[in-house]
Amino acid sequence: MRLHDEPVMEIIDRSQRSPHRDTLFNKRKVYGYNILATMSESTKYVDREIPTISLGDFDARIDDITTQLVMAAEEVGFFSITDHGLSVEEINHMFETSEAFFSLPDEVKATVPWSPRNVGWEKNSQIRPSTGKPDRKESYQLQFGQNMKGMWIKDEYLPKFREDSLAFMNRVQKISEKLMICFARGLGFPDDYFIKFHDITRPISQTTMRLLHYFALPEGNNTGVYYRAGAHCDWGFLTLLFQREGQGGLEICPGREVVTEFALGDAWTKVDLKAGDIICNIGDLLMSWSDDRFKSTFHRVKTPSEPGDYFGDRYSIAFFNQPCADALIQGPKKKYAMVTGEQFTANAMKRNFSALQEKQRALAAMAA
Ligand SMILES: O=C(O)CCC(=O)C(=O)O
Ligand SMILES: [Fe+2]
Q1: 264 C-beta closer than 6 A to ligand 1
Q2: Mean pLDDT of the chain
Q3: Dist. CA 368 → ligand 2 center (Å)
């Protein structure tokens, strides 16, 4: 078993909680035993608007787009974008490429095994501190730089996989860079401020595209047995998510006020999508870099267990914008001490690890 990269925060900083938000979201600590108490209950849902923002006519509309993005980042931390320039055909082609990879025999996929540089293939091994159990899925992490040496599936197994994946990744990077310009403006930084720190042409780039395949589950009540993707926040800067229509399950739970806080509400909101839209979410890095103005929101892929849930094989693609190791991270208000990209990641891993240990101790105590 290995520990992946999503950070979780063990400290609830009560001094910084907004009383208004507290009544809105009814927060509670999630990674203790509380989450277990919810397993047999049916999910509580609430409607929340997840803004849809058009990037069309970007140069002429940049001020308007920036306003909309900043508002979405401040309020929900999730938004979908349209008119981003990627066609439905291009997205579908990447999904077909991904499905072709996942349908290879495990022995072949194991020729590119996951490594802690966050590249490679894993199966049923990512343990989230929110569940203490591995997600039931497989994923293949791809990067642009030197970490991918020897980690691309060979052409003899899947011709053109590397070429097609890199072409898609470069297209998604360009969209990310548009969003980075807007978020830099929103925080009063120069336009290219975030782009420079996420330069994918540098060999030390850590930006990662993750292809995901969640296995089909038996229809019925799977709760407590399987997890698709346990509740977590992404630790990077910004995530761009591609989903397939009809393969639902992504849910969000806003309410986190400070990046050092480790709590979430008890009501989830399903994320619906239209073909071709990209769902985006703020990661902990941008939350920290914005002095907590932009929210990194808890989300999960729900284990299908109730009527109306999607039980079949589910494919998704996540593009994580990660800083280069030498990026210097500090918000305009200097709320948090300056850290490098490398330190930020190390701190996130450390918090993740101690939260996971806490969760596993709680699970063991319940079993005893
Ligand atoms: O598969 C999805 O829809 C979400 C995946 C996700 O949140 C992640 O990998 O961080
Ligand atoms: Fe995520």
Answers
A1: no
A2: 86
A3: 32
Beta carbons of 278 and 174 less than 8 angstroms apart: no
Which tokens is 267 given? 């009501």
- Could you tell me which of 337, 319, 320 has the C-alpha nearest to residue 328? 337
36 band by pLDDT with thresholds 50, 70 and 90: very low
- CA pair distance 187, 175, nearest whole angstrom: 19
Ligand 1 neighbourhood includes 250 CB (under 6 angstroms): yes
The per-residue pLDDT for range 311-322, each reduced to its tens digit, is 999 999 999 999
The C-alpha angle 338, 343, 345, rounded to 5 degrees, equals: 120
The number of the ligand 1 atom at minimal distance from the alpha carbon of 139 is 9
Q: By mean pLDDT, which of 120-124, 338-342, 348-352 is the weakest?
A: 348-352
Stated pTM of the model: 0.88
Query: What is the tens place of the pLDDT at every residue in 206-257?
Result: 999 999 999 999 888 877 766 898 888 999 999 999 999 999 999 999 888 8
Is the CB of 329 within 6 Å of ligand 1? no
How far apart are the C-alpha atoms of 293 and 70, rounded to whole Å? 9
Measured CA to CA, the distance from residue 79 to residue 178 in angstroms comes to: 15
Span from the CA of 9 to the centroid of ligand 2 (angstroms): 15
The domains located in the chain, with CATH, are: 37-367 (2.60.120.330)
User: What is the identity of the amino acid at 45?
Assistant: Y
CA distance 178 to 209: 18
